[in-house]
């Protein structure tokens, strides 16, 4: 009948009063000639529901199985609507493939064995539980896997999964199943930094408890290359704008890592879940907060310019336009340049100010179409900062304005996209605008930008007018 063995595994699941309390889950498998078979499947055919299960059935590592599927036609199916790593296979199809000439597997195909009824008694269960508990205890002291070059990670609503360069699964971290996690559309979701000892960073915008739909703040988590959770960060601040307190939950919008030879910091931004204020925190490599910037409006983009300068972008409530600003990371107990005593001034925040701030007012099309605020998105192109403000959203091609600045946020030029003018023509045809493009006051591009600096305060400038 072959060499039958019992294989055990354990996993971590949330249980009890603590979010990450472990409980022991013992799954029993029967292995014949290196092939993994479940004892609770139907007789005859068996469905294998992951790369690992397929690899165990074939007695090979995941990388080899993925290569066989890619180059040798191993019959692996994709889950409809799932991510690329969501796969399954049937043992009868794999057995048939093993008999074919295309298979490079050196093991002979055998019919899938019938499930064997297993009767458990106390003298059998006790040693198995002991073995599983020992495995759980020693897992924390096991050495990290050496094959981490080219490590990449994917995130879903169920878990965070790390893969090696060949696509083999290294480890998987399941989110707390008591919650539904939500990711920000502006965040990378997951990012891997470093080569020799890579760190995997992942952020959730917020999470909703399934039982009572309670909203809780999002979390930024750092994992080692071996899948161990190193640290986590969540905003739990209470700040007061215009005499009104704003407290958790905070929804994380994005994060950005600074990678320099002698420093390694992260910037993370969040906005209040219900209202407008945003917070930006800079963390050290251990997740400790170094400073905080408060802003009346949303911050949805972060870019490290250098070790002393952080670029932030989003929307300004007080100036009613897309915003971009330069922050001094050495003076980050700061807030936006708002007038004291107003609803936009943070009474409980630091009093340092940005190095520079620019606001791109809402365009004619943004106002006519009653579109949402024209949030700013940024990119660094050579020695220029390029800002796009979303003036009219679309499911296909959005209408936007394009601004170009120096790295000191001096304006160079500004224009509207071709899609912007296509939307303008359509609105004129519909009678919603009383002038064509040829007579539009903005036919040569945006006419004004709101500029702020510590020396000059607020002023209105035209694109191309540099200001100190």
Helix-strand layout with pairing:
Elements: E1 4-9, E2 27-32, E3 35-38, E4 47-48, H1 51-58, H2 62-72, E5 77-78, E6 87-90, H3 91-99, H4 122-139, E7 152-155, E8 159-163, E9 169-174, E10 179-182, E11 190-193, E12 199-209, E13 215-223, E14 229-233, E15 239-241, E16 244-246, E17 250-260, E18 263-272, E19 277-283, E20 289-296, E21 299-306, E22 309-316, E23 321-328, E24 334-335, E25 356-361, H5 364-368, E26 376-381, E27 384-392, E28 399-405, E29 411-416, H6 418-429, E30 449-453, E31 457-461
Parallel strand pairs: 20-24
Antiparallel strand pairs: 1-2, 2-3, 4-6, 5-6, 7-8, 8-9, 10-12, 11-12, 12-13, 13-14, 15-16, 17-18, 18-19, 19-20, 21-22, 22-23, 23-25, 25-30, 26-27, 27-28, 28-29, 30-31
Helix pairs in contact: 1-2
